[in-house]
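User: Structure tokens for both sequences below?

Assistant:
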Amino acid sequence: MRQTLYALPIVFACAGAASGYESAFARTNAGVAEIKTLGPAKALAAATDGVYFDTGNALFGRLFRYIRDHNVAMTVPVQAEIQPARMLFFVGAGDAARSLPDTEAVTVETLPQRQVASLGARGGYSRRNFERAAAELRAWLAARPDYEAAEDAYAVYWSSPFVPAFLKRYEVHIPVRRASD
């Protein structure tokens, strides 16, 4: 089973190269902070108690088995909420209208349009890198009086598990809303 789990070429994005997978939204370049709008989306979600960085690849495995078993196209990126641990795969445009079932391991969700503060980064998908980028994004957002954080920061991963850590691309997002006067 483990061999099957990674049998497909999961080469999301490598050092800026196009991946061949549909993108759920535009990537924020490394070193850039911005406010961006993410369109409505259909997503597959797997969750567990605890902290994301302590779950290994369990959530990824559940989601990968679901897309394999239900013949759903893989998209990039994947979203990882930190605590409680939750990972989302976005459903591609070709499968968005399909009726996909909830299972014991995976739920199907419809996400509304949303705004996020986003910081693009490079490096391994570690707790340390996430916390450093999240702190940098919070400081950037604090200097913008027109927006305020609406929820906690989460990670957005663009690269395959097989890409070397120094080449991986990721973002940290903080959902935002317009600041009240």
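Moving on to the next sequence.
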Amino acid sequence: MAALKSMLTARALAGATLLIVASLTLAEAQRFVTQPARIAVDATPIASFDNSDPSRTRFGALEFRGGLALASSERAFGGISGLRVDADGSHFLAVTDNGSWLRGRILYKDGRPSGIADPEMAPLLGADGKPLAARGWFDAESLENDNGTL
């Protein structure tokens, strides 16, 4: 009887271990989007670049006009590495460390960024049309336009 109990305990432990490993694998697999999807993004305006001197807006040839701290409950959101903003300053396209595209529209109030509208994520695809993240390739670091190909 003790041997049977020990065997059942070992099987239960092995089953629990398998369940945990499968859950972790599934959780990792869900860290990227599998198809284009609208997401919710909270945007909090950043009023100054230099917290020690909020009135300072010039940094060499650059002028700080404002910024946004972005957050989302979407698991794939975050790690924005490459960013392109249209010449009109409105629409943007970004790549993330989780193997996704992020696009949307920057909202302005009094000439300063105030929010994000129409945020949407989609998977970065390989030459075969399959999501790169599905192969374990996540980390995009930049975004460049090569004659209309990004």
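User: Anything stand out in the second?

Assistant: The CA atoms of residues 33 and 129 lie 14 Å apart.
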